[in-house]
Every structure is written in C-alpha cells, then in structure tokens.
Design goal:
The complex is a heterodimer of chains A (348) and B (302).
Chain A: H1 3-22, H2 26-45, H3 50-81, H4 92-106, H5 114-121, H6 124-131, H7 133-145, H8 151-169, H9 175-192, H10 198-222, H11 227-230, H12 233-236, H13 238-251, H14 260-272, H15 276-301, H16 324-335, H17 340-347
Chain B: H1 6-14, H2 20-27, H3 29-36, H4 53-56, H5 62-84, H6 91-96, E1 99-104, H7 108-111, E2 114-118, E3 127-132, E4 139-145, E5 161-165, E6 185-191, E7 196-203, E8 213-220, E9 228-233, E10 238-241, E11 244-245, E12 257-264, E13 270-282
Antiparallel strand pairs in B: 1-13, 2-5, 3-4, 4-13, 5-12, 6-9, 6-13, 7-8, 7-12, 8-10, 10-11
The chains are: A mainly alpha (348), B alpha+beta (302).
Chain lengths: 348, 302
C-alpha cells in the first residue's frame, strides 16, 4: 500500500477514536465510530484475496448494523428526553438498545459470531488493530451508558462471553481464531464490572490491549498462523518462544504475570458485591480459556518436534522487523503485577 | 397408500362403458390438477409419473427418526470432542500429523461419498460408472467418452465425465469443510489409462459469484499395469470459474476445502478407466513455494 494512503487511513483511525472520546453529543460519537469502521476497511482488504474480502464484508455489515442501532437508539432517546447529551441519563430501553449495539460492535457473545471469521481472514497486523484499537471507542461509550443499562443484561453478556470464549477456543488450531475467542472472553470480564466499578473495566481493557499486542506481534514475528507452526518456532527464535509462552500464560490470567491483575480485582469486586455464583462461574470459565493457552504453550515449549527429513535448519539472521514495541509489550505483559498498588492509586 | 376415489364411484356405475379417465375428468377439475401435478425436473425420455399426489409422498417416519438419532449423535460428538482436543483429535496427533488419508475405497459405503456425472445431463452420450474393484481395495471409475453433441439445436460441445466428492456435513447438515492447513501437497495413488485428467478442488466461498470457483491442476496418467504415486503441491493449483481460467489468480486457502473431483474431457472418444487406491494429503517441508503463478497486481507501485 502506498505510504501516503497508509498515513491517511491510520490517521483516520486515530481521528475516529479521538472524536468518540471527546464527544458529548451522540451524533458526534456515532460519527467517530463510523470513521473508524470506514478507515479500517481498506486495511483489511489490501490483501486482495477472497478470504480478506469476505472478512471485510462481514466486518462492514456487522459494524454498520451496530452503528445504525446506535443511531436509532440515540435518536429515540433524543425524541423521548429532548437531549442528545451522552452524559444525560438515558431511557432504559434506549440504553439497552445502545448496549446491545455496542456489544455487537466489540464482539461480545451472543453477537460474537463474526469475530473469529473476520480475524482469520485478515493479516496479523490488521488483526491486532481490530482487536485493540477498534475496541477503544465503543468502550468509551459503554462506560457512559452502562449506568443506565439493566444490570442483569451486563451480567448475562459477561457470563455468555466468558463461557463462549472458553468453549469456542477449545476446538481451534488456527491462532487468529484462538486470539479471537480469547478476545471474546476478555471482553466478558471487562463488561461484568462496567456498572459496579468502571475503573476496573479500564484496568482490564488496558492490560488486555498490552497482552494482545504482545501476542499478535509475537506471532507476526514468527510468521505463525497455526499451532503446528509454533512447534518449530524454538529453532528460529528460542528467546521469543520462551517469552511467548509467558505472554500466553499472562493472557490466561496466571500469577505472577500481569494478566492476573484484572481477574483478581474483578473477582474481588464481584465477590464484595455479593454475586458469588457469578464470580464462581467466571472463575471456572477462566479455566477453559487457560486450557487452550496452556495447549499452545505445550506445543511451543514442552514438545520437541521430531523430524526425520533432511531439511536445512533455518539461519538465525538479524531481525529486520522492528522489535521495539514487541519487547516493550512483552515486558509489560510479564512484569507489571508488582505495580498493582500504583495502578489502583492512579485509576481508582 | 391408495385413497378411495369417492367422487368417481357414482359416475363409474352409471357410465360404466366410458373410459375411466374421461369419467374422472368430467367428475372434478381438482382431479386433473392432483394427478397431473409434476414437481421437479423430468429428464427427457423418462415416463411421466402417473401416481396421485399423495401416493408420491412418503408418510413413513422411520427416515425422520433415523435423522434425529444421527443428529443427536453428532451433537454429542461435537460436545465431547472438544475435551479430546482440537477437531476431535489430541493435540499431539494434530502436531505430528504429516500425512492424512482423506478418501480410501475399502467397502461399498466409501462409494457413497462420491457423485459421478457425465454429459448425459445435457443430452450427451458419455457413460460413467463407479464401482469397487476386486477384493474391495480400490475404486474403479470407467465408462465411455463420446464428444458428439446432443441434437438439441443449441449445444455445440459435449464429451465430459466427472467424479466429485460429496460436501461433508456436520451437525444439522451444516457444511463442514476440511481443514488442510497443516498440509501442502496432494498425494494420490492411481492407475490410469494414459489420458490427461484434471483434478478440481472446491473451496468454501462467501459471495454468490464464488460458487463456481474451482482450483484445478492436471493429472497425467501413465497407463499400463503399474500404480502411479502422484504428489501435487497445492501451490500449483490455479483458479478457474465456470471452466474459464481467471486472470486474477491467487493461492488456494486450505482451511476450508469442500470437495475434490476428477474430470475428463480430452475429446478422445472411447473407453476410459481410472483406478484409485487412496487420496490423501501430506506435508512436504522442503516445498516452500506459496503460489506458482504470477499474481495479478493492480495499481503496481512505481
């Protein structure tokens, strides 16, 4: 892609998210979401392969439907209350429709069916943008609308997402689909406490973005899209393979890695609020996700891929791809748990 | 099951010498509709189905019960398979798998996975048969190719036969494509007749204009009594749509393969024969080519 076109598209992505962050009018927020959608479409379709076209079309249809629902809900809210202000208390019905639309936008279950197929059809770099940057703007609206949404809706979305994310990921061998189901599960954790403690949603979102960036960049560096490819990654980059295992375990929420932080705080908050069965189901569903992360770790580090053929071991050349962001996010993914008190002080 | 024709009894007794059709036709206009209603395509030359409409419907529930049992079994498998591993196989097996036999012909049920067709559908005269050969160890595809076009005034070319695998179906008859992304080579063991066959792979598409897309490559058979091991990398397959090779080419995505088929249309009239032992896929780690042909690039970077 021409660098000028790439700059325009990436800056449009930034513009869309910034508009949604900065807006207090529903129409401006909706415009920011639409700019984001339209800016990512050429990035998804640049591969010019039918599978990329399919992913682009599915993404566009889903996002356009969700944006139309948001517009409908905000218009209805303006008709009912006379206000376009996002911070103004919304009518419960319009808040429900808005939340359902935002759930579809980010890929929460039961409106998650598009996410694995879309991520599978695009490149790893574009998948990274879809999984991280494209979640920011909808979450900015979710945090504002969550107060007026029926609490059981958020709990249902959360439980459904974590269970579907764990269950769906068990059957996958394609790494992008595994990360898609991982995304669904993490979004479930975030949405659970959106009403009780929005700061924890923010902490969970930030840690999720850091961990997912590390995961995607690692796979991009290895050119790995299947589990079987990971089995031979130790020959090419043993250090990165070792760190990748830690990134995956961090995504699974194991202490003492960073991924444990949001799960711990969310479970603590949910338990303090008295929702013991919900907390139990969430903790058990985290085990489902942990199973497929462990499976990838097993494939990468605990197996020695047998080879009886006479193939040449690949040369270990100097990395041409930039690794600054990769190394930074890996360190953040593995070492930030001791900074929990600082995070709590800053954000809560 | 015959229903009593109550409407015609009185008329038949009173006018016993008249032919039945005439009596019945005069008795009720609905009878004409119910008897003459033909649904579906009737191939030219086939006799008309003169049964009543209710006689053509199968009211037996056993097929439905079998279907419910089958789908409940598939549902149970789909739930329990996930505990075993991805796609129902342990992870170790998935990682170590270097070869996989997709189709082999070891008994009559294996032939049900294949559909044979020829130009008889358009009125041609080619014949094709599929059977198991001796000892039920291989499949034999044989017949006669005839490229004489049918005399219908519009068909100009004829003379093709084809054998294609059925679309695999999962729970509730959903399409369940094969995931062959761990492999990069197609491996066949065949014994041909020296003719140039064509292998066609059908991949899952999303848009309706992709439904005729097919990835093809040639299979040159040696003929003679010796078996032939053919290994064709998937990177060699080129894309065609409705028989026309496309200008914009791209590689075959192996994560959703629906069907594989063999076609013969070499305009050489006469008998043909292809014996197939197995069709499998394998991973050749020395084959690193991604796509063998030039990819059409629009707006090339200057």
């Amino acid at each position: 892609m021409s660098p000028l076109v790439l700059v325009v598209l990436l800056s449009s992505l930034g513009l869309g998210t910034a508009m949604t962050f900065a807006s207090s009018h529903w129409l401006l927020a909706w415009m920011g979401l639409e700019i984001n959608t339209l800016a990512i479409l050429p990035l998804m379709a640049q591969q010019n392969h039918p599978r990329a076209m399919e992913a682009t079309t599915k993404y566009f249809l889903i996002q356009a439907t969700a944006a139309a629902m948001i517009l409908f809900a905000s218009t209805t809210n303006a008709w009912a209350s006379g206000q376009w202000d996002i911070t103004y208390p919304s009518h419960p019905v319009t808040a429900t429709i808005t939340m359902a639309a935002l759930a579809m936008k980010i890929g929460l279950a039961p409106t998650h069916f598009w996410l694995p197929e879309v991520l599978q059809g695009v490149s790893l770099t574009t998948g990274l943008i879809l999984s991280t940057w494209q979640k920011l703007a909808p979450f900015a609206l979710i945090l504002q609308v969550a107060n007026y949404t029926p609490p059981y809706m958020l709990t249902a979305l959360a439980l459904c997402s974590t269970l579907v994310g764990g269950w769906g990921g068990l059957n996958q061998t394609q790494l992008r689909k595994i990360l898609a189901y991982s995304s669904i599960a993490h979004l479930g954790w975030m949405i659970l406490v959106a009403q009780m403690a929005p700061q924890l949603t923010l902490i969970a979102l930030i840690t999720y973005i850091v961990m997912t960036t590390a995961a995607f960049l690692t796979l991009n560096n290895m050119d790995a899209t299947k589990t079987a490819t990971l089995a031979s990654s130790w020959t090419k980059s043993p250090t990165l393979t070792a760190m990748a295992c830690l990134v995956l375990l961090s995504l699974g929420g194991l202490p003492p890695l960073t991924g444990f932080l949001p799960k711990w705080l969310i479970l603590q908050e949910v338990t303090n609020q008295g929702f013991i069965p919900t907390a139990t189901v969430m903790a058990l569903s985290a085990l489902l996700s942990l199973y497929f992360y462990l499976r990838l770790t097993y494939a990468m580090s605990l197996t020695l891929f047998p080879h009886t053929f006479n193939s040449v071991t690949p040369w270990r050349m100097t990395a041409k791809r930039p690794t600054l962001l990769l190394s930074t996010t890996i360190i953040m993914t593995t070492c930030l748990l001791p900074l929990t008190p600082s995070a709590l002080t800053l954000l809560i | 099951m015959a229903m009593p024709r109550t409407g015609s009894l009185l008329s038949a007794r009173l006018l016993g010498t008249f032919p039945k059709q005439l009596v019945w036709a005069s008795a009720s206009p609905w009878s004409v509709i119910l008897r003459n209603h033909q649904s579906g395509y009737r191939r030219p030359g086939q006799p008309k189905d003169k049964r009543w409409l209710w006689q053509r419907i199968n009211f037996d529930f056993s097929k439905g019960v079998d279907s419910v049992e089958k789908h409940l079994g598939l549902l149970k498998d789909e739930f329990l398979q996930r505990w075993v591993g991805p796609e129902g196989k342990p992870l170790v097996e998935h990682m170590l798998e270097q070869t996989r036999v997709m189709w082999e012909f070891r008994g009559p049920p294996s032939l049900n996975q294949w559909i044979v067709s020829s130009d008889q559908e358009i009125g041609g005269r080619s014949e094709i048969y599929l059977k198991l050969s001796r000892n039920n160890t291989t499949a034999l595809l044989y017949g006669t190719l005839c490229s004489v076009p049918p005399r219908d005034g519009e068909t100009r070319y004829s003379g093709y036969i084809s054998m294609r695998s059925r679309q695999p179906r999962g729970l509730l008859d959903r399409k369940k494509p094969h995931d062959l992304s761990s492999f990069n080579t197609l491996h066949l063991r065949i014994r041909g007749d020296g003719r140039p066959w064509m292998i066609n792979i059908g991949s899952e598409g999303y848009f309706s204009h992709q439904q005729d897309d097919m990835y093809s490559y040639f299979l040159y058979t040696r003929g003679g009594p010796y078996w032939q091991d053919v290994k064709i990398p998937f990177s060699k397959f080129f894309m065609s749509s409705r028989g026309r090779i496309q200008d914009i080419q791209h590689g075959l995505f192996l994560d959703k393969m629906n069907t594989i088929g063999f076609t013969l249309g070499d305009k050489a009239d006469g008998p043909f024969q292809l014996e197939i032992d197995f069709i499998g896929v394998c991973n050749d780690p020395t084959h690193t080519e991604e796509f063998a042909y030039e990819i059409y690039k629009r707006n090339p970077e200057v």
